[in-house]
Amino acid sequence: MSFYNGIKCIVYHYDPRFLVLQGTLQALTMVIINVEYFMLKTILNKFTEEQGELIAHIHMHPLFFETGLKCHGCDICSDQMKGPHYVAYRCRTCDFDLCPRCYKQKDKTSAKGFGARSLRGNGEQITTWTYFRRIVDLAMDFWPTLVAALVCLVIMQSLQILAPKLQGSIFDGIIAYLQNPGVGKDRFQDAMATYVTIMVLQGAFSGLKSLAQELVQRRMACAVRLKLFASVIRMDIAFFDTMHTGQLTSRMTNDASQMTQPLNTLLNDLLANVLLLVGGMFMAFRTSWKLSILALTIVPPITYSYRSLSMPSGRAASRAPSTALTAKRTPRRRMPSATSARSVASPPRHAFESNKYSDSINTALGHGVKNAYVGASVTAFSTYLNLGTAVLILWYGGQLVCDSEGKIMSIGSLITFQLYWNMMNNAFISLGNVFNDLIRSSSAAERVLSLIDARPDVNPDEGEVLVRETVKGHLKLRGIQFRYRSRPDSIVLKGIDMEMPPGTTTALVGKSGGGKSTLVHLLMRFYEPTAGEIILDGKDTKLLSSKSVRQCCGFVAQDTQLFSCSIEENLSYGLGRDHSKEEVIEACKAANAHEFILEMEEGYETRVGEKGIMLSGGQKQRLAVARCFLRKPRMLFLDEATSALDAENEAIVQGALESLLLELNSTVVLIAHRLSTVINATQICVIHKGLIVERGTHDELVAKGGVYAQLVSRQLSRDASAVIGAKKAKDTKNNQTLATPMTCTTVSDSRSEEQSQVIYCDPAG
Ligand SMILES: Nc1ncnc2c1ncn2[C@@H]1O[C@H](COP(=O)(O)OP(=O)(O)OP(=O)(O)O)[C@@H](O)[C@H]1O
């Protein structure tokens, strides 16, 4: 049909009286053919395209089951695809993969908390266009610069549209000069002068537009990063359980800059090319309407052939970036850090790690080579198609020039037309990629904006604010149940009831994995209980601001985390008030840390390295205890606080902690496997598989002869001297210690038959 129209355009004898009508009808036929082609193609695509599965809470585009995705990593759990066929669910729009294991979990009731964690947003429905609109909204914050960029763009493109016309005039001037030097010279020089002026202006506006656009993009990226960081920093611990540091870094860096791309695409690709296409077509029709119709009749066949050929290459290319990305990610995962380098070196795994990396690199290279071959074929084909069109235009245009002896069409006009055709052709090809580019960058925007919109389960600023000085620290737990979002199948706490009056010490003991640390995390409000209530001074902690609750707490964890800064900065981190150097020194003396700090060359200014790598485990724990001395908390949680200390230091720090507790009258919850540290506690709770299976004082529990007694006798035989020594210390201290009367009010304990199954609890796990 299209070719027929082209031939008709060439051979039809146009009556000069009805030239406008006949020309318009001819042009209309061409438009209808093009519209018909695109509509038919859209309908066919709609009915024949493969339907993917849309799992909205995981990814915004449909996912397709694909095989052979070697070296691709799951975007939820970050694991690499395994198995003989490397199967995964893949998004064909953007670079997103979902491993079969994560796919299986998609329907769990906890799905909204799945993988990339609930990311509870503001309730707005998330679509590509939502994100696109929000990016435009973001850009509008810098609207004066944006408007300047737009104005420069319009001027720049208008000048570019004028250029072929002037180039044609220059050639016509040269030809006229050859025929009549007097007239031709002026024409040539005028055209030349205008052309040079236009080029100079175009260069200037192009620079201005580029500057304005770059400024908007950089400011946008900064604004996005600031918002992103503010959002991430206030997320709760549950969020970080499932979010990898690599993912967060990638969002802060790559995604944040990539999400500003739609602006680039909008200005440089969409708007710029639409202007060129419309302006070029107008000028081409002005130059020669017949040649324009002829040239446009071959657009549909060219587009169809190009699309059908580039489809397989597009599919192959869509797999390659992920592989390349994996190859980029792999060194990040495999590159040894200060701590992991030791794991790699012992036992020696250098060859294994190198092989893993070379595997990723080779797979990426394989995809790259395949793409290069397919891409080259498509390029060659499209070049031939373009050259064919150019030949047709030159052939028919040349005929017009020769037949009319330059009256219907001059040589300059033919050159002008050829240049307009090239302009339109390039604009048309660029526009074809605009939509894909927008979708691709909107995927990056989706990742970033979903994180910006994310709301923590426990909003630190929500709820009643506690005044530290008025907090007594009376804690009550009622029917506490809990399971981690990242492991929804296993219930960690199955119904815990207990009471911890102010100034008492509650020790949690029991087998490893029983849920002791989890219970402390709930008390610190790192997580919200799945069921039950935590009452602080008669108020449900759900109604209190978690930030203010935490400000009243001191916490010494099993693995002390220090920041890569000086010892003093680490100690005063998050103190929230001014402090003197003397205060810090006093705290360190009390925690038995002062001496080892002074032994270091720079004393309190010593930098401790990433995660405190330059300090021993015991030194880190003493610093953590010193932090508590400095903070003087109302509630103190000690999770194996002295496990990394030797017996001598442990006794000293333990003594220091006791005097601190005496001074502050804080409520203490301590977890310990070494029973010598718990015998002085007001109450001891034995936790097994998420339940309290025994509770009482040391003497009561030993007399009972149950699980705790077994723990003691086992440990006594292993470390008899430590326990006896501590007991003696208790006796000599008389009433000076924190042994307040046993205040444990045994509240109904949701025990199960598991209790009766507890035969032996190994304190060391
Ligand atoms: N962040 C987490 N995400 C998922 N599961 C977790 C997480 N932290 C702990 N668990 C699981 O919860 C259970 C209880 O762990 P918890 O650390 O509370 O035990 P514990 O009694 O303190 O053990 P230990 O004495 O060894 O420290 C374990 O099965 C553990 O695997």
Automatic annotation (TrEMBL):
Gene3D superfamilies, per database record: ABC transporter type 1, transmembrane domain, P-loop containing nucleotide triphosphate hydrolases
Transmembrane segments: 20-40, 142-163
Domain ABC transmembrane type-1: 147-440
SMART domains given in the database record: AAA (SM00382)
Topology in the lipid bilayer: Multi-pass membrane protein
UniProt-listed InterPro entries: AAA+_ATPase (IPR003593), ABC1_TM_dom (IPR011527), ABC1_TM_sf (IPR036640), ABC_transporter-like_ATP-bd (IPR003439), ABC_transporter-like_CS (IPR017871), C1-like_sf (IPR046349), P-loop_NTPase (IPR027417), Type_1_exporter (IPR039421)
All residue ranges annotated as the ABC transporter domain in the record: 475-714
Keywords: ATP-binding, Membrane, Nucleotide-binding, Transmembrane, Transmembrane helix
Listed name of the protein: ABC transporter B family member 25 (ABC transporter ABCB.25) (OsABCB25) (Protein ALS1 homolog) (Protein ALUMINUM SENSITIVE 1) (OsALS1)
